[in-house]
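dumping this here before i forget
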Amino acid sequence: MRGQGRGSSRGIAALLAASVCYGSAAILIRLAKGVHPVALAFYRLALSSVIVLAGAAALGTLRKPARWEAKALASSGVALGLHFIAFVASVKMTSVANATFLVNTSPVFVALAAPLALGEKTSRVEALCVTLATAGIALASLGGLTRASAGDALAVAAAVLLAAYTLLGRKLRAEMPTTCYISYVYTSASLVAMAACLAIGVEVAKLYPSEVVAAIVALAVVPTVFGHGLYNYALGSVKAVVANTVPILEPVVASTLALLLFSEKPAPQQLAGYAMIAVSVAVIAARRQPS
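structure:
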């Protein structure tokens, strides 16, 4: 039990660090000016794939997956790739507030599906934290919510895909090291993004200014290699619903960075929403987690 406690504590710490890494994504996407959103998803995933494959090879953690693992890894990669594409497309078709709120409903889908998919029951406290965090996201997004059915549908799809990615990751991380798992998943996801680029005729062999290239590389390294890497590390010791709820801190981090870098001040209702998110994450992070 003592080892389990240490493992879950490390998992929570990894999730909190992942939230900080995730918070940089919106800033870096803004800095990657002139890059098609789907191409940006491909660059992000392709670069991160190369980095984690090299790391896994150096650590000697790569292994041939069993047949069921290969299918689940491919499914997880497809879910991650489609999640990125659906979310980016939703931002283009609806307001940022709508997209942010709806994609962060992912913990609701995880809470509903985890008992069936993983046999992990969602406790009353966890359910309350998910509800409070979702309400906080809604309050923070309140001023910008609009009606845009197609974009909203894509944002919900992105939330469902993120939930699927989480549930598959929770199951697979019990069987393989983080670096091995994310090597296969990122590679599969990058192939999905590449296929999407080809399907819609987006050119990926292009030259960009050095500052844009720097933003793309940072996007691959900080929120993807480190952010998703830490997230998937945590899935080895933390319940899926908890793992999916803690990173809702992302908009709080992103808003703080936007204030520091772009002098974008959050509105009072956003601050209230962020406080609700912070409280829900603090409560869920303070609870002892079964591994």
